[in-house]
Design brief:
alpha/beta; 2 domains; eight-stranded parallel sheet; five-stranded parallel sheet; 8 helices; 13 strands; disordered C terminus
Length: 335
């Protein structure tokens, strides 16, 4: 009976994972179709009478929004030639060689354009501001355009979901490579996380506070005209903190991956596989909260707590060179 229940539990976990992936995939697919989301093609035409809901990101060689077409949301267009005659109830960001805003165009928000040849009809209705974010040579002003594109993308659910999955996959790959390159130090750090999470968390949090405090003091010291020669030391210090933090996250991913693999009856897999699984799941568990603004604080709080534990484990084990807690030696002597 115990074996049967274990099999049922394993099947339920696998079915749950597959259902979750299918749900997210279907959500992303619906966002990337013709009606909403992201479009990547050779030529894109929004026909007259067509109405789209939601923010749109279009990348194509030629883009045309015909008269009486409508998009309810912010629009980002990247193309060689853009012809805009439709109605857009939002902001428009366009990067192209040539852009024509026709007489039938109506944009309720701002129009941000970077184009070598920009033609704006006098009859076009632009309720917001028209901003040409290019230098005099006609090349893209990178900072301005990136800022505008980021503003239009950051509120897109497709962008947020994609960033969650891409970030989790990248962290899973990093965890797997770390488990392959540093197996013994990683085991010591992971054991420290499991045996002394409170102490590790306290040490890690204090380390972050000290690093932030010293950085603030250094910034203030620049206002007092103290030597800027300390800047390399500040940069090296933060590099070490970031590196140790990454190792700490990997140390957290390994035991989580081992636990999950054991739950589905695959506990005999290489540690690298467990690290990859743990890294992906840990990334998803932390980053999924950022999809919705009203739950973002949960992800931030969990990141601070878990990040402090991982960083503390790295410090307590001297970057995995010594186990922690260390074995106690018998100090009693014979009479």
């Amino acid at each position: 009976m115990a074996g049967l229940s274990h099999i049922k539990r394993r099947n339920l976990i696998l079915m749950g994972i597959l259902a979750f992936i299918a749900l997210i995939t279907s959500g992303c697919s619906s966002k990337s179709g013709d009606d909403e989301g992201f479009s990547l093609r050779r030529s894109y035409t929004l026909r007259s009478g067509t109405q789209l809901q939601g923010d749109q990101v279009v990348l194509a060689a030629d883009i045309e929004l015909e008269s009486e077409s409508q998009i309810a949301g912010d629009v980002t267009l990247t193309s060689n030639d853009i012809t805009l005659n439709g109605t857009i109830t939002g902001d428009v960001v366009a990067v192209s060689d040539k852009m024509i805003v026709g007489a039938d165009a109506h944009i309720t928000g701002d129009l941000v354009v970077c184009a070598k040849d920009f033609q704006l009809s006098d009859q076009a209705q632009i309720d917001g501001k028209v901003k040409e974010e290019c230098t005099d040579s006609g090349t893209v002003s990178a900072a301005n355009v990136i800022e505008s594109v980021w503003k239009s993308w950051r509120d897109s659910s497709l962008f947020r979901i994609s960033s969650v999955f891409v970030g989790s996959l990248l962290f899973g790959a990093l965890a797997a490579l770390s488990a392959l390159a540093f197996p013994v130090p990683l085991v010591r750090m992971s054991e420290s996380v499991q045996r002394s999470p409170v102490r590790a968390g306290g040490i890690g949090f204090l380390t972050i506070l000290v690093a932030v405090g010293l950085t603030v003091v250094y910034v203030i010291s620049l206002l007092l005209v103290l030597p800027i020669v300390l800047l390399p030391f500040v940069m090296v210090g933060w590099f070490v903190v970031i590196l140790f933090s990454l190792l700490g996250w990997v140390a957290l991913a390994v035991p989580l991956g081992i636990y999950l693999m054991r739950m589905v009856g695959m506990d005999r897999q290489p540690r690298m596989v467990a690290a990859a699984v743990g890294g992906i799941v840990l990334g998803l568990l932390l980053r999924l909260w950022s999809i919705f603004w009203f739950t973002a604080w949960i992800g931030v709080l969990a990141t601070i707590i878990l990040g402090s534990i991982g960083l503390g484990a790295v410090i307590l084990t001297h970057v995995g060179t010594k186990p922690y807690p260390r074995a106690r030696h018998n100090l009693t002597t014979a009479p």
